[in-house]
Every structure is written in structure tokens, then in C-alpha cells.
Amino acid sequence: MKISGIQTHVVGSPWRNITIVRVKTDEGLEGLGEVRMLNHTDALLGYLNEAATNHILGHDPFNIEDLVQRMYRHDFARAGEIAMSAISTIEMACWDIVGKALNKPVYRLLGGAVREQIKAYANGWYTVERTPEEFHAAAKRVVAKGYRALKFDPFGAGFYELEREERLRSLSLVEAVRDAVGPDVEILIEMHGRFNPTTAIAIARELERFEPSWVEEPVPPENAAALKKAAEQINIPVATGERIHTRFDFREVIELQAADYLQADITHFGGILETKKLAAWAENYYMLMAPHNVGGPISTAAALHFAASTPNFKIQEHFNDFSDEWVKSVAPGNPEVIDGYFALPQGPGLGVTLDEEAVAQHPRQEVFFDLFADNWQRRQALRQS
């Protein structure tokens, strides 16, 4: 069997474009990959166009490790977000093909299931005004849908520091969410790399009374020493990693033991197997995996197969029950979240099937998403003229 073609589709919403990659073979089997590129979709498509000729076409999709190594090493330049995201889409599509060829779910090919269900947390649910009343009502809707964990960034457009008024406003949102969901539901606090270490430490101390399960990206992702400085004085577990794109870039975070949970995004990290390698390394340091997932149903499927087969997995992020819920229709097949958990994925390969009519109904959008813009949490069109 050989890879005979690559086809891309870009599905758009007011705040994100999702690139779906369909890998075709000369025996008629096809596999799907997917990634949400934040403001870099054209760069991804350009890379894939060149990589198809140089690495992908004619390759045996069963030889996944060899293909990944060719794409990673043979381009010579140090791989970053664009290359690793392209590799990820092709890698997960190859796993999809292999699973279909063998009539097995991908997790069965990765060592089998180590759990019977997969805990999920909701994101994208707080597309409301930044008031305690609005956040309280939105959090209630998450719990009503059955989730037992939810994540949010209450800090507006904060950068490095927060004025006292803005800090108190942010804390009031956390207080409102904790009141809405009660003591038994996990809340996860997203910081989006906004703060310098001293600010992150100070805010985390004020968050302790709300008992969050983690603070995420308390400092920008480039400086592991700064993360270590913050983590040593934060009494809440620290999560990070969505903007770290290779195992080599995780080295300092792991060796410094600067985080408790690693959040590599499978769609930006070279794919399922590469993320499994990171998980095995992290387990030596008793760190747990909580993969970042801001994509659609195909990236969610890849994450579920990873979660099913990874012992040191903690919890899975999920956007698509609250933000652009229609996006699930472009590749149906994933289990739904019931009482806070996904069931194990079913069907051969990744278990999802592309619906081209649904894709056509949601063409690419001209959007620029900026986490440091006012009211970014509304996830509405932010393209400036």
C-alpha cells in the first residue's frame, strides 16, 4: 500500500479555522488528520504542499515512524509549530489508515485500553460578558450538560501584571463559577502565559480558596526557569505545554520538574505516537498528561485514542459541546460526553468519517484570533480592517 494523494479542507468559524487533511492510498483506503492553526493556516497548507512531493507521496502508511522521521529530520531546519502540525496531520491520518486496514481502533494498536472511560473537561463555554452573573449562568449550563470539570481564563486581556481593579474583577469571576458548580466539580484556571512569575504567584495564592485543580501556563512558555520559579511558590498544581512542539523543547520543563501536568497538543506535536513518547518520559517524573485540544472531531478522536491507551493520562479538554457545536458534524463518530466522561472510541481507525456536505457548509473564514484583545472570550470575529 502506498500514499497516492493528499487533500485538504479548511472548515471555518468566526474565531478559528480547522484544517482537515485526507490522506489517500492506492488501495482505496483513506485516513483523516486535523489541526487548528491559530492564524497560520496558509503556512500549514504551503508546508504540506511541499512535503507531499518531498516526503509523503509513495510512502507506505504503515511505516509511520519512518515517515515522521523523514519529515522531521530531512528538512534540516529545526522543526517548529508549522512543521510539527503538518507532521501531526499526516501521522494521525496514517494511524487511521492502519486501523481501517486491520479493522481495529487505533488504541488497540497502541497497547490497548488502560481505562474504561475518559474524563473530560469543558472549554469554550464562557463566551459571555466578563461579569460574575454571566459567568455564573454559563457555568451552570456546563454542569447541566453533565460535565464534572470545566476550564476558563478569567483574566481578560491581562499581560505580565494586572491592575488591582482588574485582579479583583478576575477573582470575582472565579468565585462566581465556584459558587455555580459547587464543591465537587473541578475548576481549572487558564492563565494563557499572561503573567510574569511574581504576578502568577500572587494570583495563585488568591485562587487557593477556590481549590482549582490546576493553574495553566502561569508564565509565557519560552522560559522554563521562569516557570520553575513560579511553580516553586504556587501551591496549586501547575499545567503547561500546549505551545511546546517537540520532546526536545520539553526537556527543561521535565528535568526541572517545573510542572505537574503536561499539555502537549497532539495536533501540534508530531502526532499520537510522538505524544505517547512524551508521556512515557513524563511518567518517570510522575507527571500526568492532559492533552490540549482546541480542534474539531478528528483531533478529539486522536486525543481519545491516546487517552485510552496511556497510563499517566489525567483528563481531556473538549470545546465542541459549547463552542461551534456544529463542528462535530463534519466528522461524526466520536462518543459524546455523558456524566463527564467519554466512552472509549469505537470503529476501526480513529472511528470518524468525513462529511463533505457539512464541510462545504462552513467554508474558511477571514479571522484573526487574539488572546490579548478585549473581549476575546466572546470568540467572535476579531479581524481588524
From TrEMBL:
Keywords: Lyase. SUPFAM superfamilies: Enolase C-terminal domain-like, Enolase N-terminal domain-like. One of its GO terms (molecular function) is lyase activity. It holds the Pfam family MR_MLE_N. Residues 132-237 form the Mandelate racemase/muconate lactonizing enzyme C-terminal domain. This is Mandelate racemase/muconate lactonizing protein.
